[in-house]
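Let's practice the habit of predicting before peeking. Look at the sequence and jot down your guess about where helices and strands might fall. Then scroll down.
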Amino acid sequence: MAENPLADGLKSLDPSASQYATAVVDALLAAAVTAGASDVHVHPVEGGLDLRWRVDGVLHRVAVLPKAGAPNVVARLKVLAELLTYKTDVPQEGRLRRVPGGVEMRLSTFPTLHGEKAVVRLFAGPGRFLVLDDLGFPAEIRDALSRWLDETSGAIILAGPSGSGKTTTIYACLRELARRTEGRRSLATLEDPIESSLEGVSQSQVNPAAGLTLEAGLRALLRQDPEVLAVGEIRDRATAETTLQAALTGHLTLTTFHAGGACEVVGRLLDMGIEPYAIRSGLLGVVALRLARRLCPECSRPAAGPAELLGLPAASARVAVGCPACRGTGYAGRVVLAEMLPPLDGDLGRAALDRADVRRLEAIAVEAGMATRWDRARAAVEEGCTSPAEVRRVLGMSDRTFRQS
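Done guessing? Here is the structure:
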């Protein structure tokens, strides 16, 4: 078990001290930034205050503190986010102020059986993931994204589950566009929420309470003369239709979509009732993302035999061990497992117009040269970048999309 000086330090604090909550929150958030955590969970449980954080997509316990100080710790977070501390029976959200390292943080609270639970979302800090080259895409996907950004119309869709890097990629694309155009193109966003400030981009946030929904905001924003438009997420048919209509009428649009794979984006848009011609003509490109943890270079070892391959058709593999360098996890950093949908022309375009199902679309895309996320995963395993266990955690147990070499 790796040493945990943060836990030791937090447990040494006196819950009855007047500055206890401030000391806990300051130490926890500073350590979370250093650890590269994406989320911090502050969860009151029957026996105390359970502190955990998510690093490289996996939740880790940091410490369990005495129950006596739990309400004050959550209250301190609410003060930093300028929330109502006396309201503990309703969910609240806000942006944290005065946080370490200049990192953007957002707080969400929710009432539970043993008290208010708080989750802090940490966004990428200053200087991280600024450009496409920072994101670790395969060269052909990075180059395709770069080419698409020079287009004047069409929709670029980043797909994947929560925490797969979709928003990070869109922000990198917007920074790249702002750098290339130097103010010669009008760049605008409609987000929920705004995760980071972007120089040279007009950013807006939805406000449903005031009637500024994603659909209404998008329609209004199109009257603001944008040339490039980033929409936080396609969630329904109306938003999908408006986004693709914008792409068809001379706007370069970037958006995200919750879908497992690149071809599933087309399938789900069809299921929403979007006309096939709009999908075929409006889509500039689709990239589906997954993030797998990268094996620690200090402690990983070769797989001992077929059992440790977990059924993956890989010629070789390495597995996680754990050491002080990786805090005992066996992993450090992440590797991108991305698939890019080929252009919707030829057989693939005809299949989309015929409303073909996802499996048929994927078969045609693979014939056209698409490397699936499973292909990327097998290559990453054989190169020693990640482990079979991590591939199974991220992609699941189905092997239907694995192709034998």
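How did you do? The CA atoms of residues 41 and 119 lie 5 Å apart.
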